């Protein structure tokens, strides 16, 4: 297994003002103007992977995942009028940390005016004995647009490692013009009275999705319409996936940004993937 390391990554994309070529949504063609990274982390940004102006950004951890003692810090800056997708090639695997301390990861995103950032990763998978502590911060303006997916699996269920990690600590924070508008903290750790596995019962997947901004209002309205409506008489909910959604609206310095906040639990990865594909 690879040795622990301290890795960083930094990427900035900005619009090509001299060659605007806006698409139907008005986003401008974007170019990478700054890119740096260090082992065991790097960004992959393929050229011409899509006909749209959107840039696809892939964070990659060498060695097949993160080990105890790894400390990763990555920053993504999406300039005004740009569109970007941050996604992964596979799930983020977090290995045990019996002798090396916690695995730490800090992800910082900045979204410019009239820009769109979609953070759509595969899930985090904490192996038996893992101690994963993550912070994710998004800086926006009231005219920014965001689709932010964050989810995790219980572990390697085929090896009976369901919810058998040491700790999973995940801090998500959204800021508009520097003011915190949403803060979420997930802290999963066995207590002397109840284990995480007992508390999660038969659920193997947990996650959330935040949608904010005028340009993605169609998505937030569709999610609200689908998951916040009252059930018809006799209509049954799926026992495999539990979804809740709330409308959100934040006013900062007289400017308002609206959207929705969705949470979900799932019994299997396959069932949840189907829901996510329908959502985003």
UniProtKB/TrEMBL annotation:
Belongs to the UreD family. One of its GO terms (molecular function) is nickel cation binding. It comes from Elysia marginata. Signal peptide: none annotated. Keywords: Chaperone. It holds the Pfam family UreD. This is Urease accessory protein. InterPro entries: UreD (IPR002669).
